[in-house]
Each structure stands twice: as C-alpha cells, then as structure tokens.
Specification:
single chain; alpha/beta; 11 strands
Length: 338
C-alpha cells in the first residue's frame, strides 16, 4: 500500500496527516508549533519526531512504510545557513530520504487550490502570498513580525494594542476595544498591559497574535479603530496577492483564482473585508473558498514530488465556491519551495 505523509507547520501548531494513495486519511496528529526562530532549530526535529511517531503508531505502520513525505516548515528557505540543516532533519526520523522539505506556504497553496494555478494568501500568525503558474512559483511577503508580516494576526494584534494605548491616554476616543483588551489580558490598570505582554508573556509571537481575536470581536461590536485595523489588514494582503499575480505573468484580462489559509480568515467579517478589497483592486481576481486544508495540501505536494498521479476525487475540475464582496517547481524567489 502506498502511504503519504504531509506536515503543515505554523506559528501556533503543526499538523501531520497520513493518507493512502487515494488521499484517504489513515491517521493525523496535532503537535506544537515548529517555528524555530524563537527557540532554536532543534525544535523542528523534536516536533517532526513526535508527529511521525504519533501518526505511524496510530496507523499501525513504521516510518519505513511511508512512500513519500513532504514537510512544510515555517521559516524554511529564510536562512541559507539553516536550510540544509532543516532539509536533513526528517531523514533521521524516517530512516530514509523519500521526502522533501519546503516552506509551509507551499502546502497552503496546494491545498487551497487543489494544486491548480493561482495564488494563495496566508494570514495566520504571519502572512505571505504564494502562487504558481505553469510550473513557475513566486512568493511575496513573510518577512517576519519584526519588520513585515503585514495583515497577519500578529500585525492585527499589534495594531489593536497600539489603538488600545491611544485610547488609554486620550489620543483616541475609547471604543469597545479598550474594555475588551483589558478583559482578555486580565488587567484593571491600563499600564499593566506592558507588564503582562512584555514581561509575563515575553512578547511571545503566538500569544500576541492570539489577541487578533479581540480586535475582530471589537470590530463586530462597532469599534471604529478595530474596523480600521481590519480594513488596513485586508488592503495589505491584497497588495501581496496583486504583486504575486503580476510577478507570475498572468495577463491583465486573465481570471486568476485566489484562495486563502490561516486563522484570521476564520472570521467572517475579515473574509468579507478581504473579498471587498480584492474585488475593488481587480475584478479578474476570483476569490474562492479553500478546496482542501494545508496538511492535505502537503500530502499532494508529497505525491507530486514522488511522481504519483494526484487523486482525481481531490483535484478533479469543478466549479469552485466563489466569494464576492457582497455578504519541484521553478522559482523566482530564494524562499520558494524546493
């Protein structure tokens, strides 16, 4: 029996999915984030080992039985020094070299569009756009929370905290966001927010990004500052998509499928904001719901890298569900998948 493994790493969790050759799930596991820039590259090996052991044990097989695997690793390709180290990690876990590694953006794209040409935009803890057209790949964004990741959950949270600080000292009229942040963080004095976020949390990337949910809730409650943050986030993500579309050489009149992945898109309000921003930019950018999840997308990448046909039931052409504004490929980027 052919068995494929896909891993989708992210800023808050890592998903493992084991399937047969038809894409039917055999086992799955959820592990902690393998984003290693904060804690060290050893984290990647620890997470991969735990995930592989969990799914193979559940399926009653050994790592040697895996036909091919693809590991989507956040940060892969973003440090020339680290990339060969990351590429070598799975061999020690699997006991063979029938695998590939790449940035987690590739699985997001492959899953959301079922492997067809187009662009996927990620708005999770971080943000980026990745697309393929005719075997050519291009990435835009994903420059880390320090000086990039515009439109991500982390970015939304930071903008929301900035609005809170302005409300706290009178530079901005207080709206529902002010009380919502105080309640979520657990402070009764505004300045204590600094002690919690910076000292107690250590400005942890995932913990801060989780505050994006507060911004979304405040926007739903009518907070003008929160609404503005989400509008700006949607505009930033639209810029990522448009830049990727142009770099891939899609014609001006060509309809381009655009899909999405990442936790921020779970909020209906934000999906609507993004759909409106995308449509206003270019009516030929066709926003469609993700066909498959990123972990299954990584399985499709594994199948393709193994030279196997992709399951027709997962990739057969069909009319995608469209969203409107109304309620190893060749690469042009040094960080694109291998």
């Amino acid at each position: 029996m052919t068995v494929y493994l896909g891993m989708d790493g992210g800023g808050t969790k890592t998903a493992f999915l084991l399937t047969d050759g038809d894409g039917t799930t055999l086992a799955e596991s959820r592990q902690p984030s393998c984003y290693y820039f904060d804690t060290g590259i050893e984290l990647v090996g620890d997470v991969i080992r735990a995930g592989v052991e969990a799914v193979t044990a559940a399926a009653g097989i050994t790592p040697a039985d895996i036909t091919f695997a693809h590991f989507g690793i956040p940060g892969h390709g973003e440090s020339s020094r680290d990339t060969p180290v990351l590429d070598a990690v799975p061999a020690g876990v699997l006991g063979h070299e029938r695998y590939s590694c790449g940035n987690d953006m590739v699985g997001g794209w492959a899953g959301s569009l079922a492997g067809r040409d187009g662009v996927n935009v990620i708005a999770g803890t971080g943000s980026m756009a990745y697309g393929e057209r005719g075997g050519v790949a291009h990435r835009v964004g994903g420059w880390s929370e320090v000086f990039g990741d515009e439109g991500s959950a982390y970015w939304v949270a930071v903008q929301g905290l900035n609005a809170f600080s302005r409300m706290a000292d009178g530079r901005l009229r207080r709206g529902p966001l002010h009380a919502a942040v105080r309640e979520r963080v657990g402070v009764t004095e505004d300045l204590d927010l600094i002690g919690v976020v910076v000292d107690e949390w250590g400005a942890d990337r995932g913990a801060v990004a989780d505050l994006a949910k507060v911004v979304v809730a405040a926007a739903d409650a009518g907070d003008e500052a929160a609404v503005d943050v989400l509008h700006r986030a949607a505009a930033e993500l639209t810029t990522l998509v448009v830049t990727a579309v142009r770099a891939l050489g899609f014609a001006a009149c060509e309809t381009v499928p655009v899909s999405y992945s990442g936790g921020l898109f779970q909020a209906p309000r934000f999906r609507e904001d993004f759909a409106a921003a995308l449509h206003a930019e270019d009516a030929h950018l066709e926003l469609v719901e993700p066909r498959l999840g990123p972990a299954l997308g990584s399985v499709l990448v594994a199948m393709r890298r193994a030279g196997a046909p992709l399951p027709a039931r997962l990739t057969a052409d069909q009319v995608p569900t469209r969203l409107t504004a109304d309620p190893a490929p060749t690469t042009r980027s040094n960080a694109a998948a291998r």
